[in-house]
Design brief:
elongated, Cyclin A, domain 1, 0% strand, Helicase, Ruva Protein, domain 3
């Protein structure tokens, strides 16, 4: 079993033991690893060093954060950290824990996503206040930020924006907190505030799913 000391997850040997311990989420993690940031050279090779490191880190987190286990979207967060620390998995692991626990991101991934509903409601109110044309178009199309922005918040934009941009956003997030993510979301919507009202619902729904994505 995993001891309390090992669950603290700070020593390098503790990380090594965690990532070598089978997890009930292993099959799900493997599926997601193969489709995480394929545009990045580090993760392009199937079962290459980047993908293997991502699997080990996600497995270790699933065991360490037993009340969450593994949740899709964590793969993008962890992959971004591997890109920052490609030669030091233990450091990437500690940084992932710090993001999730010290910055309260773990609450986004807990069963039934208790914090995510609050985040969606708050972002909708901010959009309503600062981007009234966007808000009016979204109301007309019958959608809110739950439809288009959940992945922004669950992955801290790592699933949509280029990694170089994501790292700059994270630098600001670590200093200024959640408001940085809200500001980035508003900035993305601002760029389409004149386009969105011109689309019919069918095209608008498709557009909202992909407009922020960087190929």
């Amino acid at each position: 079993g995993i001891t309390l000391h090992e669950r603290a997850g700070t020593p390098q040997d503790a990380y090594a033991r965690l990532c070598e311990t089978p997890s009930p989420y292993d099959a799900m993690i493997r599926r997601d690893v193969h489709r995480t940031l394929p545009q990045e050279e580090l993760f392009r090779e199937r079962n290459g060093p980047g993908q293997l490191a991502l699997f080990r880190l996600l497995r270790a987190l699933a065991i360490r954060l037993w009340d969450i286990g593994y949740c899709q979207s964590l793969n993008f967060v962890v992959a971004t950290l591997i890109g920052v620390f490609p030669e030091d998995e233990a450091t990437a692991f500690r940084c992932a824990l710090a993001l999730l626990l010290r910055h309260s991101l773990a609450d986004l991934y807990r069963p039934k996503f208790p914090r995510l509903g609050v985040v969606v409601w708050q972002f909708d109110r901010v959009v309503e206040g600062f981007l009234p044309k966007v808000h009016a178009a979204l109301v007309r199309h019958g959608v809110n930020s739950e439809y288009y922005a959940i992945q922004w918040f669950l992955t801290l934009f790592a699933s949509d924006l280029r990694q170089a941009v994501v790292r700059r956003i994270w630098d600001r997030f670590l200093v200024a907190g959640w408001r940085v993510l809200v500001q980035v979301g508003l900035a993305l919507l601002y760029t389409v505030q004149d386009v969105l009202p011109t689309l019919d619902t069918c095209h608008a729904l498709s557009f909202l799913r992909r407009f922020a994505h960087s190929d």
